Each structure stands twice: as C-alpha cells, then as structure tokens.
Amino acid sequence: MTKILTLADARNEKAAYNAKINARIDAIEAKKAEIQAILLNNPQIGVLNSGKFYVYPIGGRYIEAKHPSKLI
C-alpha cells in the first residue's frame, strides 16, 4: 500500500530538500571566498580561461594548478 502524504509531510520534505540545497550553496560560496582571498593576497597568480591558475616563476615557464593554494 502506498502511504498518503499529509501537508505536514510535504512541508518537511521540502524543508529538508531546501536545507540540502542551501548547504551546497554555502559550501560553494565558502570555496569561492577562499580562492578570492588567496588571489587578493598573491597578485602574481593569474587565472586561465580553462579555470586553472598559473604563476610565472623567475625561471621562465609558467606553472599551472587547479587550485591557487598549490602555487604559493
């Protein structure tokens, strides 16, 4: 037999779904803020169109990384 959902059950499910989505958004915002702080404190680090970060060391060729913290 299928269970009949009440209005309260539907509201609880929607609240749980929204909490899950908001947690994902908060995690993305935290990661974005971390990357912005690293880039602000290290102006020598640039961003490529592919989403990777790079830095030109004194030696010549540039170094790529997926996260700017690996270039510090």
Topology summary:
Layout: H1 7-41, E1 46-47, E2 53-55, E3 63-65
Antiparallel strand pairs: 1-2, 2-3
Structure description:
The protein starts with 6 loop residues before the first helix and ends in a 7-residue tail after the last strand. It has one helix at 7-41; strands at 46-47, 53-55, 63-65. Strands 1-2-3 form a three-stranded antiparallel β-sheet, with no helix packed on it. The chain has 72 residues and is mainly alpha-helical.
Features of the shown structure:
72 residues; mainly alpha; 3-stranded antiparallel beta sheet; 1 helix; 3 strands
Rg, alpha carbons: 21 Å
Average of pLDDT? 90
Assign the structural class, choosing from mainly alpha, mainly beta, alpha/beta, alpha+beta, or little secondary structure.
Answer: mainly alpha
How much helix, percentage-wise, in residues? 40-55%
Query: What share of residues are in beta strands?
Result: 5-15%
Our measurement of the CA-to-CA distance between the termini, rounded to an integer number of angstroms, reads: 60 Å
Q: Give the strand order, joined by hyphens, for the main sheet.
A: 1-2-3
Question: Stretches where pLDDT falls below 50 for ≥5 residues?
Answer: none
Count the helices. How many?
1
